[in-house]
Design a protein that fits this description.
596 residues; 6 helices; 6% helix; globular; binds MU-OXO-diiron; binds calcium ion; TAT_signal; PhoX
Length: 596
């Protein structure tokens, strides 16, 4: 039975009160159990986590830092036994290494990292594949699971698809342009219909330092991607992150990476057919004709939404037949028209403006300079596209647009309707004839985010939405088995406003459309990532990223310095243990489906 005040909402739970403190908070009647923390053992033989004795060798066997995307691949079709796949997006050395940051006279000073610390950082990046099992209603990690794996910034990878072997991908370590080392800044991702794990490489520009040789042919390409940003110190110890020494290395990042979780020895594959951008994620769905459609956001102000349609159909009866589906297909970029229609423009070398006259000499060029190809095609410049999630129940697609405070009043369009868009919005796409492979469709704004009690913000939450239920900065999202939309946020964590990031349940259907309720909120300093529901809707996995992060300061340094918020020691609450990012398993007390 639904609560009497639900007004047709598809969600039934008592919402959490918004606020900010050192703990996480969850709707009444649910349990939130810490499943995996940074440093927990993932491989057998991993040493117990000791923050005072961190080594790359230990870290490469332990759960990595800053858990972001969470996926679940059932084993034997079970919702209670499977492989949890988790991205480790980035590292926060100021939270990882005690004593690195000193605050002198209120000014922050962050010391240089040693090679050993950089090596720990590199091992803390990438992803984790780990077997988990629910016993007596509680999830446990199977630390000796035969599929368990850590993927890091040093894991050997293959480069496949149309750009593989291109001269622009060749380096002194790899004259073939087909063998990359490692993956970095994996934000969101996906699980394919054939049960592989997708890691999306996002802000790769931060890892590169140094200057390209004068007049180098990649200069315009790198400028479009903000390379190099120099936020990390890896180039001090590894030449491949120094543009002056290895000018093509940045072309080997910014890809979609596919991992065969059933073979822990298999090299992950960078699938160039899906383009090179700052990929947020790659969520997919099987279309009516059996082809598989991947939706991709490029998380940058004024960048684009993409979709990739495989050439061949998915074969549900033969896993092996699907293992190279991601090497051939058509990438499209979205154009949102003012009248609520849209086109998906194919990004095919030789078609339209994607020709030699415009500097594209092959499909590899189109994919390596995916953003410039989108520019040439006249795609719509969006307010930071994050997760893009197809909904197989209602046939729609949801686009999280996190914010864009740099959009000027004369740059507003129907799909990005607010100048200085501080709180972001969500677009709902209806593909023509409900066909996910369609090259045209319709769209509307589901929600303009922000505080509805401040008229100037222009938020469009329903009037049923309480003071706890509104949010800004949508980022990751999930659709559960019932077809309900759940949105997690990045950027609401603010002591001044008294709110944190969290997980919100957002109605999309009927009279309750655009009603939002707060289900879970994170401790101070953290961002909410994940979320992911098991196929039985009885567990929601959420990822608490960078708890205790106190903000950054770029003044007076070539690199940023960061503050630590010492008011939380989540999740251990021990004085000798640092804050630790962690994945949390949420279940209903006593069992059952969530929020029904
Ligand atoms: Fe890593 Fe776009 O959030
Ligand atoms: Ca993030
Ligand atoms: Ca994100
Ligand atoms: Ca974000």
């Amino acid at each position: 039975a639904r609560a009497a005040d639900n007004k047709g909402s598809a969600f039934n739970f008592s919402e959490v009160e918004a606020g900010v403190d050192d703990k996480h908070h969850l709707a009444e009647g649910y349990d939130a159990d810490i499943l995996l923390r940074w440093g927990d053992a993932v491989l057998s033989g991993a040493p117990a986590f000791d923050p005072t004795k961190q080594t790359a060798d230990a870290q490469s066997k332990q759960f990595g830092y800053n858990n972001d995307y969470v996926g679940f691949i059932p084993l034997d079709g079970s919702s209670e036994h499977g492989l949890l796949v988790v991205n480790h997006e980035y590292t926060n050395p100021h939270l990882m290494f005690a004593g690195l940051v000193q605050v002198v006279d209120g000014k922050i000073k962050q010391g240089a990292l040693s090679k050993e610390q950089v090596d720990v950082e590199m091992a803390a990046h990438g992803g984790t594949v780990v077997e988990i099992r629910k016993t007596g209603g509680k999830w446990q990690v199977v630390t000796d699971g035969k599929y368990n794996r850590r993927i890091t910034a040093n894991t050997p990878m293959e480069i496949t698809g149309p750009a593989a072997g291109n001269d622009r991908l060749k380096t002194s370590a790899d004259a073939t342009g087909t063998r990359a080392i490692g993956t970095i800044n994996n934000c969101a991702g996906g699980v394919t219909p054939w049960g592989t794990y997708i890691m999306a490489e996002e802000n790769f520009h931060g890892y590169f330092s140094g200057a390209l040789p004068e007049g180098h042919k990649e200069a315009a390409n790198y400028k479009r991607y903000g390379v190099p940003e120099g936020a990390y110190e890896w180039a001090n110890f590894y030449d491949r992150f120094d543009l002056s020494k290895e000018p093509n290395e940045p072309n080997r990042f910014g890809w979609i990476v596919e991992v065969d979780v059933m073979d822990p020895t298999a090299a992950p594959k960078k699938r160039t057919a899906l383009g090179r951008t700052k990929h947020e994620g790659a969520e997919s769905i099987v279309a009516k004709n059996g082809k598989v459609v991947f939706y991709l956001g490029d998380d940058e102000r004024f960048d684009y939404v993409y979709k990739f349609v495989t050439s061949a159909a998915f074969n549900p009866n033969d896993r092996a037949a699907n293992m190279n589906l991601l090497d051939s297909g058509t990438l499209h970029v979205a154009k949102f028209n003012e009248d609520g229609t849209m086109q998906w423009l194919p990004m095919v070398f030789g078609e339209g403006p994607l020709t030699a006259e415009n500097g594209f000499t092959s499909q590899a060029d189109v994919l390596i300079e995916c953003r410039r190809a989108g520019d040439a095609l006249g795609a719509t410049k969006m307010d930071r596209p994050e997760d893009v999630q197809p909904n197989g129940v209602n046939g729609k697609v949801y686009v999280m647009l996190t914010n864009n405070t740099r959009r000027k009043a004369d740059q507003v369009d129907a799909a990005n309707p607010r100048a200085e868009n501080a709180f972001g919005h969500i677009i709902e796409i209806s593909e023509n004839d409900g066909d996910f492979t369609a090259t045209s469709g319709k769209w509307e704004v589901l929600l303009k985010c922000g505080d509805p009690s401040v008229a100037a913000v222009g938020a469009t939450f329903s009037t049923e939405t309480t003071k706890n239920g509104w949010f800004g900065m949508p980022d990751n999202c999930a659709v559960d088995a019932a077809g309900r939309l759940w949105v997690s946020t990045d950027g609401n964590n603010n002591k001044a406003t008294g709110r944190t990031d969290g997980l919100w349940a957002v109605d999309t259907e009927g009279a309750a459309r655009a009603t939002s309720k707060l289900f879970f909120r994170v401790p101070v300093g953290a961002e909410m990532c994940g979320p992911l529901f098991t196929p039985d809707d009885e567990t929601a996995f959420v990822a608490v990223q960078h708890p205790g992060d106190g903000g950054e300061d770029w003044s007076g340094h070539g690199r940023p310095s960061y503050y630590e918020d010492l008011s939380t020691r989540w999740p251990d609450f021990k004085s000798d243990m640092p804050v630790r990012p962690a994945v949390v398993a949420i279940t209903k007390a006593g069992g059952g489906k969530i929020a029904v």
